[in-house]
Amino acid sequence: MAFEPPQRLVRALGELPRTAQDTQWLERLPELAKEALERREVEAQRVLAPGGRSSLVVLVRYADGTPAALKLAPPGARPDRELAALAHWGGFGAVRVLDSRHHEDDGAILLERLQADVSLRSLPEAKALLEACGTLRRLWVRPPAGHPFETVTERTAVQSEALRSAPPETRALVDTALDLRSQLVAHPPEELLLHGNFRQGKVLAGERAPWLTVGPDPLVGERAYDLARLVRDRLEDQVAASAGAAGARRRVNKLADSLEVDRERLRGWTVFRAVESGVRALSAGRRRDAELLLEFAAWL
């Protein structure tokens, strides 16, 4: 079986700052995948395509026919942190790790098999948001002692530095986002383990539980930061609905109230994360995505 990385993964990695380590990982990916399979004594069935933007996922099975999924991510994606978060959640609201013994050898993670083609995005919007909120409640727990995760303050500090060199046409929104971020990190209200990249597409149907989250980019901080990415989910649909600023604010308020999160803190983090994503999309040449994100941020 060929283990060539899907083009979606290649394009996504090309948008990120590349390290020599990550470049080498991408070049050696077919070889690394074969080694990881042999090490865990599982057989490949097929590569998941189009797959994710940050990893290669191979659907596999044990000798007894038990299905599983093998995930390989570049070192820069810190798969060790993903493993630590999934292990801490222990399958409660999240995909379960099946074997972590060999992780330090190759960075790959063997996971229980979920239905990759059935996410919360397959549900009507109201039902999807209800299930998403229920999943987030399970994930927001105290981090383990001596955890390896960065904080919201640390991650957004790096992002803020990148924003300072944003194109002039985004300057007003960028300045607003940076001001909001400064106010938000000055007095963080809580320190919980966060998914870091939570949205409807990251919650898949399973057999052990109806819905389980995958693909965390974990960090420690306040719930409003984690919820902010969900606010702009199905963004094209939101823009097409023509509800504009009023609709965006209603969505913020509804999600904040559902999870007992401060409305203004959620609004602030939603603006910051939308602007940061929009500027990054602009620099990668994804102008349509950038325009949607920046328009949404302006509404708030």
Automatic annotation (TrEMBL):
One of its GO terms (biological process) is secondary metabolic process. It comes from the Bacteria. Pfam families: APH_6_hur. One of its GO terms (molecular function) is phosphotransferase activity, alcohol group as acceptor. Keywords: Kinase, Transferase. This is Kinase. It comes from Streptomyces katrae.
